[in-house]
Amino acid sequence: MIFTSLSLLPQLVLMLAALVLLTSFALLSQARLVSAIHVFAWQGALVAAVTVVVAMTSHSHHLYFSGALTLLLKALLIPWMLHRLTRRLELDRHVESLGRPALTMMAAVALVVFSYWLVLPMIQQEQIFTRNIIAISLAVLLIGLLTMVFRQQAVIQVLGFMSMENGLFLAAVSATSGMPMVVELGVAFDVLVAMVLFGVFFFQIRESIDSLDVDRLNRLTETLEDGK
Amino acid sequence: MDHFLNAGPWGLALLQALLYAALGPLLVGWIRKVKARLQNRRGAPIIQPYRDLWKLFAKEARVAHTASPVFRSAPYIVFVATWLAAATIPLVATNLPTAAIADLIALVGLLALARFFLALAGMDVGTAFGGMGASREMLVSALAEPAMLVAVFTLAMTAHSTNLASVVDYHLNSGLVLRPSFLFALGGLLLVALAETGRIPVDNPATHLELTMIHEAMLLEYSGRHLGMMEWAAQIKLVLYGTLIVNIFFPWGIAQSLTPVALGVALAAIVIKLLILGAALAVGETVLAKMRLFRAPAFLNLSLLLSLLGLLSHIILEVGA
């Protein structure tokens, strides 16, 4: 593919997809909880923008609806719910220090290379930029997983989970110009319900271990007795 | 101007190099003025840096007893290396004879040479501040240089050349293309430029009394014309990075032919672009606070990450066949 042979709209799709990848990196490394929620909101807005631009290039009108739905749900509603949760859990000034930021970043870069290597054997679809965006979506998905593995804070793990969903959605939009509306609605409400359930879980976890640092779940209570 | 036009392209190349030396203090004066206005001060006139240089060159240069010849020769080496590096970057025209040496890797090498002698001079006299400044400068540059090289490779891969003039020409001829890799490379280069020119999140150019200074700490022992050379070199370095950024990423207006009209337009365009960049820098420096020295590696890691993402998005999104 010659990049300059594309018209401006597909170029814009690629640009926005690259920015989604950047927000994934930001989510992985952001130490402040509130800023991480903002980054997640931006990622949702960018995915919505990709959806709208793909709708404009492929003239598929139902994609406008899923774009609006994404914007509403992932850029506004879920970040707002998380914001409210962190305030109620008194975590809005929470700062988590990363263990080895440079190493984590390099792992994420390696994941990007790995996902490109994975999609290389795929055959080009009708839309010329499809395969390369699948590489980006796969990278977003894997970095979301990496966020869940590397970070100890439960709220950020939920953000990682949600950004995995963003990666899947990006792949669906760019590769097949969107899923059927019923599936999309179903997934959207699943995510919303998951969010509500996570909220309940946060309170449960905090009640039992007095913190949202999930590393503490690994410790046995007997260790306290040993110290005596 | 006519005289130089008659002298042919070499005369123009010389004029461009002189323009770098002349624009340096002006850009610094402009940034200081905008910063002063943003802080509700009137500020010194824009030509104040010229007066400072004039004053420094008129004064006697004192050298410490313990100084070796390295200390005396360093200002000239630093100045010449920086100026030579600047002269290779197309400022107003792309097809000058100096374009042949306008290589991105040579540029990074010349800047590294200047930095090496600056650090040597900082350590030469044996004061505590000089050594501290030199060690910090090396910490920052060791992290900034890979980021800059990766960003530069992204540009070079797009244009299939490491020659700056052909990179600019390629970008001009391909028209408006939204390249994700250029966006990331721009971000990476901006952060590197902030770190390398000692601007606010990494170093504070306005301080002489804090334990946190980097660049100023190395110059503490200098006086007179030596100090003048060093300060002038730092100002040229600022114009160098500014021109590198605006002419590569926003090359519109630069002259591709050596006619007086095209050159006049190019001169006006580069001055306007640098004024806008300087104003943006002043706003950034007013809004941001200087970060702790130990946060600087995280800042430069970010720039390396941006450059790497630029390289990856170039390979994945732009070439991937």
How does this model look, in words?
- By secondary structure, chain A is mainly alpha-helical.
- Chain A is built from eight helices and no strands.
- Chain A has one domain (3-93, 100-227).
- Chain A is globular, with a radius of gyration of 19 Å.
- With 321 residues, chain B is mainly α.
- Chain B has one domain (2-319).
- Chain B contains twelve helices and no strands.
- Chain B has helices spanning 2-6, 9-38, 48-58, 69-88, 104-124, 128-159, 164-173, 180-196, 215-218, 224-249, 260-287, 296-319.
- In chain B, helix 5 (104-124) packs antiparallel against helix 6 (128-159) and helix 10 packs across helix 11.
- Chain B is globular and about 55 Å long.
- The model of chain B has no long low-confidence stretch (mean pLDDT 89).
- Chain A binds chain B through residues 1, 3-4, 8, 11-12, 14-15, 17-19, 21-22, 25, 101-102, 105, 109, 112-113, 116, 129, 131-133, 135-136, and chain B through 174, 176-181, 183-184, 297-298, 301, 305-306, 308-309, 312-313, 315-321.
Q: Largest interface, with Cβ-Cβ < 8 Å?
A: A-B, 27 and 25 residues
Quick check: average pLDDT of chain A? 84
Number of domains of chain B: 1
* Overall geometry of chain B: globular
Helix and strand run of chain A: HHHHHHHH
**Discrete helix count of chain B:** 12
Largest sheet of chain B: none
Computed Rg of chain B: 20 Å
Report the biggest beta sheet of chain A as strand number plus sense, adding barrel if it closes: none
Residue ranges of chain A: pLDDT <50 for 5 or more in a row?
A: none
Beta strand % of chain B: under 5%
| SS summary, helix count of chain A | 8
**Structural class, from helix and strand content of chain A?**
mainly alpha
Gyration radius of chain A (Cα, Å) is 19 Å
